[in-house]
Amino acid sequence: MPKAGIPPSALHSAFQQSAFQQSAFGNPHSALEFGVVSSEPLHRVAVLIITYRTYPELRRCLASLAADGAAVDVIVVDHESDPAEVAAIRREFPWTRILVEPANAGFAAGVNRGARETAAEYLLLVNPDSFVEPGLPARLAAWMDAHPEVGIVGPSISNPDGSTQASARRFPDFTTAIAGRSAWLTRVLPGNPLTRHNLPYARTAPGEPIEVDWVSGACMMIRRGTFDQLGGIDEGFFLYWEDADFCRRAKQARWRTVYLPVPGTVHIGGASSRHASDAALQAFHDSAYRLFVKHTTPVGRFFAPLVRGALRARLALMRRLVRAQVRRSHE
């Protein structure tokens, strides 16, 4: 059942055409056409896409946004840019703003960089290796309009085969290592109680919103007021776990995070990290440790050396598995 304040009927009423027509999406350029200088932002939603050497995927992502391009502010923060690729994409998608970054400062820094370039009321984070459902920015914004107590909302994210990604989760605890999204127990027995504890989306009826601990930054909409109150994304997380940290800080500030199981994106996954797979593995484990230390209790800090050791052991194991896969692929 949805939490208090999120009646099931609201999911449908928020999508009504009348609400859409009354929003800024109906005519995003009206102020300019009539020569009126407005204090309101031109676009209510900014789509932020953070890239690192993912130009083929980025083109497909932008193509999926073409129907919404005039109604939203699409901002690409491109790390370690290729000037020729950037010029070509600007010609292909002239409604897209590309911010060129000479160095890779990480996902969190990229989000903050993009957010500084827009006054939009809502920020929609989208991974470049994703296909966005047409109309998604307007749908999520309309739903957020109807639920001012919600600071973050995440739609359903699908795998290329049509299955649903585990994008809505509980904050990590001692069960996550054995029953998290990619854990062995989850793969073998996906319906076990520990996995259902960690992945609450599995208990959600179609179309029924549910309050969760955190949603994946692969596709999440953030209210601007929430983003500014929290000071943006913590740039101490270079890659991975920054979304869980942001949602935890939002909860501490009494904002709600909701999983809204409507079609959002199809997410391929791993496009940026494939260019530096070992560095991505290192970043995953470093960020996991940072998340633990940042949010654990005073008693939990006593176990920090044990957690660090366990993460280092897991990192070493993952590196061996990756090397073994590479060797098999060349045989």
What features would you describe in this structure?
By secondary structure, the protein is an alpha/beta fold. The chain is 41% helix and 18% strand. The protein contains 15 helices and 11 strands. The strands form 2 sheets. Strands 1, 2, 3, 4, 5, 6, 8, 10 and 11 form a 9-stranded mixed beta sheet that branches. Helix 13 runs antiparallel to helix 15. It is globular and about 50 Å long. Residues 1-39 have low confidence and may be disordered.
Descriptive terms for the model:
331 residues; alpha/beta; Spore Coat Polysaccharide Biosynthesis Protein SpsA, Chain A; 2 domains; 9-stranded mixed sheet; 15 helices; 11 strands; disordered N terminus
The percent of residues in helical segments reads 40-55%
Q: What is the CA-based Rg, rounded?
A: 20 Å
Low-confidence stretches: 1-39
CATH topology of the largest domain: Spore Coat Polysaccharide Biosynthesis Protein SpsA, Chain A
**Oligomeric state of the chains present here:** single chain
| Top-tier CATH class of the largest domain | Alpha Beta
Query: Can you write the helix and strand succession as a string?
Result: HHHEHEHEHEEHEEHHHEEEHHEHHH
Distance between the termini: 51 Å
Number of domains: 2
| SSE class | alpha/beta
Mean pLDDT: 83
Q: In the CATH hierarchy, what is the architecture of the largest domain at level 2?
A: Alpha-Beta Complex
